[in-house]
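Deviations from the work plan: none for this task. Representative record:
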Amino acid sequence: MRTPKIPKPTIRRLAIYYRCLTKLKDNGVDKTSSKEMADLLGIKASQVRKDLSYFGEFGKRGVGYNVDKLSFKLKEILGLKKNWNVAIVGAGNLGSAIANYAGLEKNGFKIVSAFDVDEKKVGQMIVPGVTIQKIDDIEERIKNNNIEIAILTVPVNAAQEVTDKLINCGIKGILNFTPTSIYAPEDIEVEDVDFVISLKSLTFEIASSKNDL
Amino acid sequence: MRTPKIPKPTIRRLAIYYRCLTKLKDNGVDKTSSKEMADLLGIKASQVRKDLSYFGEFGKRGVGYNVDKLSFKLKEILGLKKNWNVAIVGAGNLGSAIANYAGLEKNGFKIVSAFDVDEKKVGQMIVPGVTIQKIDDIEERIKNNNIEIAILTVPVNAAQEVTDKLINCGIKGILNFTPTSIYAPEDIEVEDVDFVISLKSLTFEIASSKNDL
């Protein structure tokens, strides 16, 4: 049975709760509460309770949550009980920096392939043990290496063409770093990470708080 | 007068509409509609109209929007009529890749300073004309260079300490790439860009659609 439609911001917060619980666990904390987690994250306790309520009852009123159990449950909900094979598509500065980001492997995301159009990059190592391959070979390699997630860091003008190839070879999800909308069928998940949009969201807030003076 | 409280997802979409209008303009398109924009972005036309309605009446029913005018208005709303001086705080792989991202300058964000703790990096050029400086000098340099936005790409364990320094020297906004929550007073805007959280949001969707089978 599919979980009822969960709002996107709730899903992101679940991942943030999971990160928060992992930190509590590392600090030897056994029990927590919606209030404690909310305070750590700068949000409201009622928000934490509402988000978790989509998935059933976790804590006991007045007793709170068992950190281990809730953490395990969130890990399961977020699909993190397995490791995920990831491909970097576009091995420029940003693609390389992401591939080498320590947080990926730690969280169960393993870079197993990288692709680029630039002949000079092909054959170079992007992370230990993974050499950059020609993008022409992408369909075959994605299929043969059980890669379910692609991180898209190609230039804008190549974004849709590469996306179409990824769709053809059965990718399940795309993390889109290109500053453009990409189109994929409904059964392929797309998450956009556009930090220029985030910067503009920041300047909106700064500009509108200035108008407040 | 301060604009009424606008939901965060609306603000992000305004930035996306602005990007979409810029593209239409580049393609020589004069007029558009909520339907056309929505189709280009894979959302609903009613969403576009609702988001824009926070800021008044833009289009005429049945006639649509003048691309130039709406684009200009959104540019103003998003605080993009001026350029913004930006500092990169933490000049590792990710910080360097972001500093060199072509989309920044094109969108009015100018990297004018970069800081790191690593003595070996100090003095190196991060982008043409900008050398990496000691993080000890950050407060003075931020003040003297009229820097309003900091992009935070330091390790997690340094995140809050550096944030506190940035607050002290009068930064207006922080784009937080560190995988942790940072605390700042209400008048300092913080936007988180955590792509591991985005990946987990992706694996949630993939895992829950599998359960659907």
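The first strand of chain A starts at residue 31 and ends at 32.
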